[in-house]
Amino acid sequence: MANLRPVPKTREFDLSRDSLRDLNLFLHKHAVDAGVAQIEVRNPAGAHSIACGLDAHFDVQIHGHVGYYVAGMNKHAAVTVHGNAGPGAAENMMSGRVHIRGFASTAAGASAHGGLLVIDGDASLRCGISLKGADIVVGGSVGSFSAFMAQAGRIVICGDAEDALGDSLYEAVIYVRGKVRSLGADARFESMTDTDRAAVKSLLAQSGLAHDPAEFKRVASAKSLYHWHADANQEY
Amino acid sequence: MCGIVGLLVKNPALRDQLGALMVPMLVGMTERGPDSAGLAVYTEPVSDHHHKLSLYSGEHAVDWPELLREIAAAFAHAHEISVQGNHAVLVSSADPDLLVAWLGRHAPMIAVLSVGQSIDLYKDVGAPADIAERYRFKALRGSHLVGHTRMATESAVTPAHAHPFTAGRDFCLVHNGSLSNPHLVRKRLEPLGIEFETDNDTEAACRFFEWRLREGDDLKTAVQRGFSELDGFFTFLMGTDRELLIVRDAFACKPAVVAETDDYVAIASEFRSLAHLPQISDAILFEPKPEEIYSWRI
Is CATH 2.160.20.60 the classification given to domain A41-223? Predict the structure, then answer.
């Protein structure tokens, strides 16, 4: 029996030849009408803002290293970077999936509302800063001030965390497998429940990582900053 | 915002191509620093008892051969000069401190950009590509270099405020970031007889480190000391005749990427300035960690 599903059309952009503006214009204005769902991007050469602001179910494969803000504000699309990402990868993502196969620079997943950000390598400082509901899975380690003021969502760290992890956390939850150099203000270790282990197992499976959820520790807010204490003399 | 670039070739066969490899790196940082650019390049050292001075005359028309005659009349030493428009490199066996003082008195329109045995220094206002063309950066040869594209935030856009800054001999520094206590550092250094040329925050860092080098610190120790003395945001890239060093502040606010192969170490604020380099796909790529000191020697 013939396969009646339409075959998704592929379009390739080579940024050594095609302009970044043409690529993003195509993704924003023309790809849906043209029936193109698969986009291959070659020679990104560290360019900024590749595949930003997408709002359709595309599969974007970027072959090389990218600069600032790759897949920022992403909605619905799956964006894979076969290389490293500059600052602000998947910043303010709304939904969909962004996968960085190498390392990610500062502020990966900053203020992301939804979707899944997977970083196979390390993430630099401020990963998941002000997270608002997305999930982040880091295969390696994260730099200092990660999850600073994170409001909702989950961050799974398979390696270590540097200083001030989870400083001023709200309702976001961090699962960390390795060593934590220091916790930030109002962050604390909590015991893992079956729900936590199931959440870690699911996020690891979605990210293609094979760690045992039992190896992870939970970090969440002690909530002592939720209310202003005049007597605390600014010491928390 | 500013852009930094650094390149050290480990393979001596690449020394002839140092400038050609670097120009796309510098031009690639134009968006980060469109108002000025500069470069320190470390060449084969001049022979013993000789020094070279990079001189810059800006808008002033200077009769360089006449200047050389006047210098020869004042100093009974061997002198040579090579001129590129408003820029010249003077090689002399005279005491460089006396030469600098003489130039200050007799040719005050000329700025001495650097003094040393290996360093040549160029800096000017304008787009990085124009400055690279003006001083024929593509043809530069040497073992390592330190470059900068500037977007001024802390002080005026003038050639003197452009980076690299130099102090002492064969030492230079470029900076992406801003310091919050440069005046305190300056207040501490000036009573020691250390003179400043500008009100630029980066100059304070440059003179602080060079003072520590003269006091006997090696560069890493000087930088370590700087963590408690210099307050603010910084990615510093520094050069000496033998060494290239990069360090970022504790918050790593300003970006930097390093690419290392068997042939070279290349540093830039962003990967897009490294993407054109040979064998870049095989290079080890990493971002310097905060307050960790990375250095390479020739």
Answer: yes
How distant is the Cα of B273 from the closest Cα of chain A, in angstroms? 8
Decide yes or no: CATH 3.40.830.10 for domain B2-43+140-297. Answer: no
Give the residue-averaged pLDDT of A148-171.
98
- Which helix (H) or strand (E) segment holds residue A207: the answer is helix A194-207
Give how far Cα B291 sits from Cα of A7, A144, A146, A148, B277, Å: 51, 12, 17, 20, 27
Residue A95, beta-bridge partner list: none
Name the A residues in 137-156 with CB < 8 Å from any B CB. 143-145
Q: Among B186, B153, B181, which residue's Cα sits nearest to residue B254?
A: B153
What is the Cα–Cα distance from A23 to B254, expressed in whole angstroms? 28
CA B156, B157, B159, B164: dihedral to nearest 10 degrees?
A: 80
Per-residue pLDDT tens for B98-123? 999 999 999 999 999 999 999 999 99
Whether A87 and chain B come into contact, CB under 8 Å, resolves to yes
Domain ranges of chain B: 2-43+140-297, 46-117
Q: What is the pLDDT of residue B133?
A: 97
Report the interhelical angle of B219-229 vs B201-214 (nearest 10°).
Answer: 130
DSSP code, position B298: -
Cis previous bond, B164, omega within 30:
yes
Q: Which residues of B touch A144 (CB under 8 A)?
A: 250-251, 290
Residues facing residue A117 across a β-bridge: A98, A136
The token pair at A54 is 């997408």
Whole-number Å distance between alpha carbons of B238 and B295? 9
User: How far is residue A162's CA from residue B229's CA, in Å, rounded to a whole number?
Assistant: 23
Question: A123: exposed, middle or buried (C-beta count within 10 Å: 0-12, 13-18, 19+)?
Answer: buried
Please state the pTM of the whole predicted model: 0.95
Tokens of A218: 């939970």
CATH class label, B46-117: alpha beta
Residue A85, classed as helix, strand or coil, is strand
A26, exposed or middle or buried, with CB in 10 Å at 0-12, 13-18, 19+?
middle
A214: its two tokens:
């039992």
Q: Please name the amino acid found at residue A37.
A: A
Shortest distance, CA B284 to any CA of chain A (angstroms)? 12
For residue A48, which residues of chain B lie inside 8 Å, CB to CB?
Answer: 272
pLDDT digits (tens, 9 = 90+) for A62-112: 999 999 999 999 999 999 999 999 999 999 999 999 999 999 999 999 999
Q: Is B2 a catalytic residue?
A: yes
Is the alpha carbon torsion for A190, A89, A144, B259 positive or negative? positive
Nearest chain B residue to A64 by CA distance is B281
Domain boundaries, chain A: 41-223
Give the list of residues 6+ apart from residue A193 with CB closer than 8 angstroms, or none.
none
